[in-house]
TrEMBL record:
The keyword Transport does not apply. It holds the Pfam family NAD_binding_2. The lineage of its organism: Bacteria, Bacillati, Actinomycetota, Actinomycetes, Kitasatosporales. Residues 7-160 form the 6-phosphogluconate dehydrogenase NADP-binding domain. Transmembrane segments: none annotated. Keywords: NAD, Oxidoreductase. Residues 163-282 form the 3-hydroxyisobutyrate dehydrogenase-like NAD-binding domain. The keyword Oxidoreductase applies. This is NAD(P)-dependent oxidoreductase.
Length: 294
């Protein structure tokens, strides 16, 4: 039977967009967020506001979890008052967070009906139903959640079994991190050689070498504006670290990913972690001898 009720746990850029989209489409929605303001805003628009993650998930056909990292996901799902604190939920648990395979295995032991979702897009795409969703899990669980997922995405692809949606999202985020850093490096080199930043970025983004994400992030680099992030730099560092860990597990050496991880970790140490990931270019214009700004 297709889902008719949903809960959204985590109301950041992506989760907030998802929640608003579901409300707009008439879904009976319950929301929860660690800080109360985003939930209260959605409550004024018609969502039920839960006091705890467990309360939010109790009666939902689909429980969508959109949190920053594995630690937050583990706390909300397995901690006190967590979704799974008292056992499995009746609905399908759909994790849209990029987390480690080890944590995903723990969740599957506690939640038999579990989908791992790789979401491609940003909060605006979620708000307008234009995401691409790559789902890992069983045919049965995907069928149960399909009515909700189709409201959020222009494409829902069942990529394989448990963990495969998360793995695909991880490699896509890895590719994004490398592309944005490559563009930032090319721009830094051009500026160092005396070329105007705008000229370099225009040449890159109108060429056959560009990708849509490069065109999108180039606007931030051109303006040197990285506040109100679409995707925080520290989250990119987290995903690159997960990719390196997964490569190590499979016996692969990925030199580009390892190099990008080192640069992103350096940027986080220098205080840029909560800026948009396009701010990686600030680390490349180093003047303190080891990257970052003085």
């Amino acid at each position: 039977m297709s889902a008719t009720t949903a809960a959204v746990l985590g109301l950041g850029v992506m989760g907030g967009g998802i929640a608003r989209r579901l409300l707009d489409r008439g879904v009976a929605l319950t929301v929860w967020n660690r800080s109360p303001e985003p939930a209260e805003t959605l409550g004024a628009l018609g969502a039920a506001v839960a006091r705890t993650p467990a309360e939010a998930a109790r009666d939902a056909d689909v429980v969508l979890v959109s949190l920053a990292d594995g630690a937050a996901t583990e706390q909300v799902l397995l901690g006190p008052d967590g979704v799974l604190a008292d056992g499995p939920v009746d609905g399908v648990l759909a994790s849209a967070s990029t987390i480690s395979p080890d944590l995903l295995r723990v969740l599957r032991e506690r939640a038999p009906a579990l989908l791992d979702l790789g979401l491609l897009g940003n909060g605006d795409h979620a708000r307008s139903g234009e995401l691409r969703i790559y789902a890992g899990g069983t045919d049965t669980d995907l069928a149960r959640a399909r009515g909700i997922l189709d409201l959020l995405a222009k494409q829902v692809v069942h990529v394989g079994g448990p963990g495969d949606g998360m793995r695909l999202k991880l490699l896509m985020n890895t590719l994004m991190g490398i592309q944005v850093q490559a563009m930032a490096e090319a721009t830094a080199l051009g500026e160092a050689a005396g070329l105007p930043r705008r000229t370099v970025l225009d040449a890159i983004t109108t060429s056959g070498f560009s990708t849509p994400v490069m065109g999108f992030k180039a606007r931030r680099i051109a303006a040197d504006r990285y506040d109100t992030p679409d995707f925080r730099l520290r989250l990119m560092a987290k995903d690159l670290a997960l990719a390196v860990s997964e490569a190590d597990r499979t016996g692969l050496h990925l030199p580009l990913v390892a190099s990008a991880l080192a640069t992103h970790e350096q940027a986080v140490r220098h205080g840029d972690g909560d800026l948009d990931c396009a701010a990686i270019g600030r680390t490349l214009t180093a003047s303190d001898g080891e990257g970052g700004r003085p």
